[in-house]
């Protein structure tokens, strides 16, 4: 049952990305082009996501545990360190160059565009490169 709900969640997310037009990298890049062909629609998509998330967390955390899991897995860390800032900057730079974030690129695979596949290959390569450069230690994984 857990996998069924994961599938449904993914389908709802992918449908939202498609309906909002966020699978089109030009739409995302136009959001960043403030002095040119600025398109504010990404701000509305993000705002809608924040509203849903705000109420979703309020609703979910009224429960003692998730429906399909042993416990809620929420980070207790409040540290803003070099890894967090560097990773955020790298994510933002990649998003600004490619016009995709990983969440939007996965449903965009259905468009058949080679750029999407290339982007996702680069994301996966980045995951493996990070593990080579700075392996995750057991103490980090426990957080």
Can you give me a brief rundown of this structure?
InterPro entries: DUF6691. The protein has 143 residues and is mainly alpha-helical. 66% of the residues lie in helices and 0% in strands.
What does this protein look like?
- It comes from Cribrihabitans marinus.
- It holds the Pfam family DUF6691.
- The chain is mainly α.
- It has one domain.
- 66% of the residues lie in helices and 0% in strands.
- It is built from 7 helices and no strands.
- The model has no long low-confidence stretch (mean pLDDT 86).
The beta-strand count equals 0
What distance lies between the first and last C-alpha atoms, to the nearest angstrom?
Answer: 27 Å
Q: How many helices does DSSP assign?
A: 7
How many structural domains does the protein architecture include?
Answer: 1
Beta-sheet strand percentage?
under 5%
Mean pLDDT: 86
Which structural category fits the helices and strands?
A: mainly alpha
Q: What profile does the largest beta sheet have?
A: none
Order of helices and strands: HHHHHHH
List segments where confidence is low: pLDDT < 50 over at least 5 consecutive residues.
none
Shape: globular
Percent of residues in helical segments?
55-70%
Radius of gyration equals 18 Å
Key terms:
single chain, 143 residues, mainly alpha, 7 helices, 66% helix, DUF6691, membrane, transmembrane, transmembrane helix
Question: What's the layout of helices and strands?
Answer:
Blueprint: H1 2-20, H2 25-32, H3 41-60, H4 82-98, H5 102-108, H6 114-133, H7 138-141
Helix pairs in contact: 1-5, 2-4, 5-6
């Amino acid at each position: 049952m857990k996998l069924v709900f994961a599938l449904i969640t993914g389908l709802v997310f992918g449908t939202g990305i498609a309906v909002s037009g966020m699978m089109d990298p030009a739409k995302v890049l136009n959001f960043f082009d403030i002095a040119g062909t600025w398109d504010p629609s990404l701000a509305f998509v993000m705002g809608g996501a924040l509203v849903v998330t705000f109420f979703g967390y309020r609703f979910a955390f009224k429960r003692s545990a998730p429906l399909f899991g042993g416990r809620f897995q929420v980070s207790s860390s409040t540290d803003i360190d070099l890894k967090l800032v560097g990773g955020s900057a790298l994510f933002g730079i990649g998003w600004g160059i490619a016009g995709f974030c990983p969440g939007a690129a996965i449903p965009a695979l259905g468009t058949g565009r080679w750029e999407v596949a290339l982007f996702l290959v680069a994301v996966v390569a980045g995951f493996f490169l990070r593990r080579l450069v700075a392996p995750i230690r057991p103490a980090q994984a426990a957080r």
